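EI: anyone free to look at a 382-residue chain?
SC: sure, send it
EI:
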Amino acid sequence: MTQGRPLYLDCAATTAADPRVAELVMRLLVEEFGNAGSRTHEYGLAAHREVAQAREQVAKTLDATSDEVVFTSGATESNNIAILGLAAFGAAHGKRHIVSTAIEHKAVLEPLAHLAETGFEVTLVKPDGAGHVDAEALLDAIRPDTLLISVMHGNNETGALQPIAAVANGLSEDGPFFHVDAAQTYGKETPVLRHKRIDLISISGHKVFGPKGVGALLVRRRRGKRIPLQPLMWGGGQERGLRPGTQPVALIAGLGLAAELAEKERNSRTAACQQFRTQALAELSPLAPVIHGDPKRGVLPHILSIALPGLDSEAIMVALKHVVAVSNGSACTSASYKPSHVLEAMGLAEDEVAGTVRLSWSHATGEVPWRTIVSTLSDLRL
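SC: here you go
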């Protein structure tokens, strides 16, 4: 805990900006505050250079070219552009079928639901009891009229990694477009995202120690041709016409630096998070938790989803609120107090769903008061 506040264990929801990133963002907000679209003076040119550098920084981490990077407000907007932006092409070419999974973030499921209302057919493949979706089940769901397959890389609630490499390997060169929501994995599990058969990748700055309000959509070319995305907004032509509006130079530059730092420090950060996970599992073992996600099939080292049957997640969070900050699911839907659609799709028992909490940390997380946590939760069971 810092300055009387509980220790933050909700890094899957958001992360603190790296001090090096925050310093850059502040400088560009106060000193180099020009509009990147103003090419007639040095202020605008300096801003343009910052945006160009950030675009190259992000592209380099994904083995892409800088003109394949489109800056957005975050992964939610990127997901919407990737999914809704293909609708016109799909309708025009008789491809009105989309394959996804039942454990996607609402930023994917809700755009898909919107398309379903307009005549598209959506197939949602369910996960197994550990939260992993089978690659063959996804590939088997593809039809001649399939426009898109959209699969998250790492689940934001359970940390279960999904087989995006196997899916990419199983897609034909002329098959459906492949979109990956990499909000939880970019900067952590980046190498697999460099697979050239992944057409579209969504990322968020605030999940990788960058600022909130900025992200990117990687739009790879296929056989040298751009993917036929249509914008969701018009006016200004920025970001290759896909995301109009004045570019938030400071935020974009912050994302670029965060991306570069994440790649340079990825191995050490991963090792620190894995060490933390090992300790967490050992310290929590007296509670006999049910752990979601199968390590043999891959789980993110910074997320631990556990169920404590017999205890309600709300009661757990209230009991621990002065000790650690944890959650019981996605930050975007936590205010609704509805059962997690992810856990329900996994087919878990009602008490297991109700008793699940998520702990998520980073390489910079401090010492955890495990003894207090365990004793507090043990008392709840009495």
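EI: The radius of gyration is 21 Å.
SC: 👍
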